[in-house]
Amino acid sequence: MSFESLLLPRTVSERALLALAATAAAGAACVSYGVLVEPRWYRRRRYRLEVLPHGTTRSLTILHLSDLHFRARDGAKSRFIASLDRPDVTLLTGDIIGEPESVETAVDALRHIRGRLASIFVLGSNDYFAPKPLNYLSYFRGPRRRRKGTRNRTTDLIAQLERDGWVHLANRKSSLSRDGFRCEVVGMDDPHIERHDLRVATRTDRDAFGLAIVHSPDPAPELAALGYQLIVSGHTHGGQVRLPFVGALVTNSQLPNRLAMGLSRMGPALLHVSPGLGTSKFAPFRFLCRPEATFLELLPDRGDGTGRGDQRWGAVVAAASATARSNTRS
Predict the structure, then answer these.
(1) Close Cβ partners of 103 (under 8 Å, ≥ 6 residues apart)
(2) What global pTM score does this model have?
């Protein structure tokens, strides 16, 4: 076949063959990018949220990490985490380890970003059960409620993190306070495998700022209705594979796919769903969904003193989206 015929194919079969070859090449390039580049193209993102009670004298910086899926050898991820600024509060929303051998790697990496005021974690299904190969098409059948499998080193993970000063909130509450500011915190065990108990989430200090921490975002509507102003979760990986103008194809969650990543308004509350920093070792790819560490900078409300009215919260979300910042590959 001559060079001229490649440029101007003369038959239908030649044109079809060239189209097939071009499609295969584009597909191979996308797969290579999704496996070799994007899973390690970590980024930082920062939101500035005017949600603290009026009169609060200081801001509160939260680092939200989720779905790290640490492997035993995970140097690039460990170095990225070590490069992060130390926050006031660090929140881990589950799926910390991706295999039993990775507990020590995860604990050592997370030691560098403990919060000055508090370090809190909840667990996800992968922290309870070691991952296993799955049929990718099963995700299109809806959320999977995995209850059986090889036990992960859950007890070791909890014990080693707590030894470092982390607080495990499994269906229980805690509180934060500083300079007169009070925060009522609830942590939920993983709803994805039906371990959560919403009975413990009833607000008892309505004058305090309400913060809810949970692996899967599925109970976010109930937590918002209970009066928590900020809900943080993970689990969805942002969809992990996203398409232009479409977004996430699947999220393994009951919430709409459009809520699979980032900051959203949910009634009187804000929901932040982290796209996560890792992937399962049996699905090690991302596409148009970079791994992320998120800083939520909570600032005093400059409005009417409550920050809870519909118009005010709409402005908060718009401002947060407009001032979000991300950086390039680390």
Answers:
(1) 97, 153, 156, 157, 160
(2) 0.87
